[in-house]
Every structure is written in structure tokens, then in C-alpha cells.
Amino acid sequence: MTNHETLVSPVGVTLDRFIKRQQSSLPFASGELSQLLRDIALAGKIINREINRAGLVDITGAFGMENVQGEAQQKLDVIANVRFIRALKNGGEVSAIITEEDEGIIYTDNDEGKYVVAIDPLDGSSNIDVNVSIGTIFSIYRRITPTGTKPTIDDFLQGGRSQVAAGYILYGSSTILVYTTGQGVNTFTYENSLGEYFLSQTDLKSPEDGSIYSVNEGYYNSFVSPARAYITNCKLRDYNSRYIGSLVADFHRNLLKGGIYLYPPSKKHPKGKLRLMYECYPLAFIAEQAGAAASDGYQDILDIEPTELHQRTPMIIGSSEMVRDALSYF
Ligand code: P6P
């Protein structure tokens, strides 16, 4: 490879430049979706800073920074919710939002906005205040109601295969943005000192098989029997058990290394705990784009008919061979 070629290798390009390059292949390449992806990336930078700073303020609390002390008192997931809503409202491309933090549809008053967004602003709530990886999950639809009118619930309940883009931001040892627009999965690593996301992997493909399983073993006895049978077999096969309690972190590790994550129906969550619109649909879109799979035990997650905004579903997601094997127990 000549020096020139190494200089133009895609890895290392900034998110902005990458989006510009991809725009020609984006559906409805009008620039609005590109701008929307930038708006989400910006909100991710702000949340990343809040997460890193909250601990500091908690410890010292005396920096006297304007209202930060107040914000630090608030739970970080509430701060994340406010930041994402503000970024999407100011961006102008989104006409409505649903979020795990609010019961109803949030209207941005940008009725000309062509897109609606479903978002879990900060997933992994049990880990938020104890410095364990957490994440943002987002799903983007092109609205089906006429622009210029007030969006309706129908704009959200289009079904998983109508997503035009989906992704997540993982706030871990480094902050990573992973998204797809239906042309493969690309990952970006955030460089704090430069305030930029840099392309780290293009067209990521997940290993077809693996030996990591992620499930809350504490609920073993309350899971449905097919799940118990599969989990028992994972142990008999000496699989590695890895469960962080943050779906984004478990999903990302399994996507890269090969593995399976399960949240089956249980006594406490007979329909499963995870939310279809802003946890399962987006991760299932990414999984399928990366050659992995996602099911509720009986059908692909992306084929589940949505009926309500905060609908829950069981989910089995990860390496295609492992999901196929797990489904043989259901
Ligand atoms: P449990 C976090 O609340 C979450 O939605 C996922 O991120 C995580 O995998 C799961 O719930 C943890 O749930 O019941 O095992 O604590």
C-alpha cells in the first residue's frame, strides 16, 4: 500500500466526513438524516461529559459551577433525557420523540421534520451511579403522516423493518458510537481531547458462533422452562457467563466476540423486561446488519407487530448459530 493509500484508509476518518461520504447512498439522500445523525452524536458528546463529570461533582460538589451541582443531584438518566430531547428539538429534523423516561409522545413543534426518534437515553440504570458501562440506544423512522401536520402514534408503530437508522452509544472504557442505515454497521470511537468521533470499524460482521452467554442467572428459577433448559446447556458446554446489567455493554461485547444475550419471560416480567421500540428493534436492526440474529423466542424481533409505545418483549440476541440453537429449545 503506498503512503497515499494508507493516508486515505477509511479507518480514522471523522464521523462528519464519513456521513458526508455515505450520504449519497443514504435513503432519501437529502441531508436531513445525515444532520439527524450528527445531532444524536452531539448529544452523545454532551452525555459523555456529564457522565464523566457527575462523579467529580459528586465527590467535590464545591466547584460552584452554575447549576451543575443541581444537575448532579438529578439522576443522570434524567439529564440524558433532557439533553437528547433538546439536541433533537434544536436540530430541526425530528417532529416527535418517544423516550423511556416519558409516558407520552414528545412533540418538537418541528412539524416539517421528516423523522421521528425512539430513544432510551441512558440504559443500564442500575449501573449509572457506580461507574459501570451504560449506553444510549436510538431508533429512527421516516414519518408516514404528512409533513407540516402534527405527528401521530402511527409514525412510531411502523414496525422494526421500517427503521431507516438505528444505533447506540456505549459509555465505557472509551465512548463508542455504533449505527447502521441499512448499509452495514460502522463503529466510531470518541476522542475526548479532540471532541471528535473517529471511524474505527467499517461494515462490522459478528462471529457466527461463540461461547459467551449473558443472562441474569438470579432469575433462573422464574424463567420459562425452554430458557432454563438452554441456560443449563450453556453450563454443560462450559460457556463463559458474562452479564453486566447494561444491555448495550453486553450486546456490544457479544457483537464483537460472538455470544448471546437473553432476557426471557419470567414471573416478574411475563412479557419480558426489555422495551421493543427503543431497546430491541434498534439492536435487532444492528444485529441483522452485522450477520447476527434477534428473536423473541418465536419470531424475529424485527417482525414483531408494534401495538403500543412502551411495549415489552422477550429477547434472544447474538451470534446467528447461538440464536438458532437457543430457539431449538423454544
Ligand atoms: P435485570 C437495564 O435496566 C436493562 O434494561 C438492560 O440494560 C439490562 O440488560 C437489563 O435491564 C438488566 O435487567 O433484571 O437483569 O437487572
Q: Which helices and strands, and how do they pair?
A:
Elements: H1 3-7, H2 15-23, H3 32-60, H4 68-73, H5 76-91, E1 94-99, E2 106-107, E3 115-123, E4 134-142, E5 165-171, E6 175-180, E7 185-191, E8 196-201, E9 212-214, H6 225-236, E10 240-241, H7 247-257, E11 260-263, H8 276-289, E12 293-295, E13 315-318, H9 320-327
Parallel strand pairs: 1-3, 9-10, 9-11
Antiparallel strand pairs: 1-2, 3-4, 4-5, 5-6, 6-7, 7-8, 11-13, 12-13
Bound molecules: 6-O-phosphono-alpha-D-fructofuranose.
Give a verbal description of the structure:
There is one protein chain. This protein is α+β, with helices and mostly antiparallel strands. It has two domains: 15-201, Fructose-1,6-Bisphosphatase, subunit A, domain 1 (Fructose-1,6-Bisphosphatase, Chain A, domain 1, 2-Layer Sandwich); 212-327, D-Maltodextrin-Binding Protein, domain 2 (3-Layer(aba) Sandwich), CATH 3.40.190.80. Helices cover 33% and strands 21% of the residues. It has nine helices and 13 strands. The strands form two sheets. Strands 2-1-3-4-5-6-7-8 form an eight-stranded mixed beta sheet, sandwiched between helices. It has a five-stranded mixed beta sheet with strand order 10-9-11-13-12, with helices on both faces. Strand 1 and strand 2 (106-107) form a beta hairpin. Helix 2 (15-23) runs antiparallel to helix 3 and helix 3 (32-60) runs antiparallel to helix 5 (76-91). The longest helix has 29 residues, at 32-60. The chain is globular and about 55 Å long. 6-O-phosphono-alpha-D-fructofuranose (P6P) binds next to loops.
